[in-house]
Amino acid sequence: xxxxxxxxxxxxxxxxxxxxxxxxxxxxxxxxxxxxxxxxxxxxxxxxxxxxxxxxxxxxxxxxxxxxxxxxxxx
Length: 75
What we know:
31% helix; Translation Initiation Factor IF3; 4 strands; globular; alpha+beta; 2 helices
């Protein structure tokens, strides 16, 4: 089990979600890993929730740090 961090700040929708999907497909994240994703696009919270539902992942926590939105996802 690893902790993986991805930073998609500065990317606009839908790029953060597309990059997240690519990271999963390229095996940057494996079963049991904890992924922390940062982004600042307007729809990131809704997009992450949808991603977790579709891919059957657990959204452990979502919070704001200034204008940065951070999601912690269990794989």
